[in-house]
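Suppose a colleague, Dr. K., hands you the sequence of a protein chain of 279 amino acids and asks what its three-dimensional shape might be. Before reaching for any lab equipment, you can write down a predicted structure in token form. Begin with the sequence itself:
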Amino acid sequence: MLEIALGSALMYYAAKEAFDIKPKPAEAVYYTETLDSRNDSFTRMHRETVQVKPAIIDQFRGIVHQAYDYSCGSAALTTLLNGYTNLNATLTEQQVMDGLMKFGETDKIVERRSFSLLDMKRFVSAIGFESGGYRGEFSDLVKQGQPAIVPISYAGFKHFVVFKAYKNGRVYVADPALGNISFDEVRFKEIWENNTLFLINVAPENRKNLLALQDSDMRHVEDATVNRYALVSMQYPQFYMDKIADKASTIRLDKNMNEESDSYGDLNYNFLRLYYKNK
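The predicted structure, expressed as tokens, is then:
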């Protein structure tokens, strides 16, 4: 009896290893194939795991997505604290908003429906970090070698983003509304509001690098390409449009009643198209 049990256990173990039964991550993509002994098995020849994730996850990698239209300041500060300072816990935007309301100029915050750099400085000081708002040239921003909150005026709005890095003529920022985006240097200088930046002083041993550039940040569309193609309507030759219209129309067999035509009296196919007229 013991020999039978031991043999069954060995068979189960061998089958388990042969079929590679292991826990699979939720993001794994599974392939199904028809087993054909005449060809190499795809499963036998390919063992790597393929993982997929929504593009929005990478777009907002390391960024706290602002919860309200007026909360870019609190979301940018939360992003900077979580991504650059070695806190004991990961902060939520709501916690930072509560802190800004408590230590900032509450009446002015309610009146203007936004947070200022002074509000940020007071809250950051309350949790034990030195910080400050400064004005400087673009070269000063780059030389800091650390992320900073910068105000920009973009698309008709005043907005807070986190400056991440400058590389090869482009400025990379963490935008609480749009995610990880970049501007060319000239464009960034145009929208940078008052050349202002907000820095948090963090000792090297207490820094994080969650806002460091990654390969995915380098994938961007040049501004010239966007300007050239973004609003261009696709144009097709007229004969191709007529062909499409004919295929979607009703065909009717009619007699040619034009006496001046060479095919007078012949039966011809006519395409009856539908036209819509605006009132």
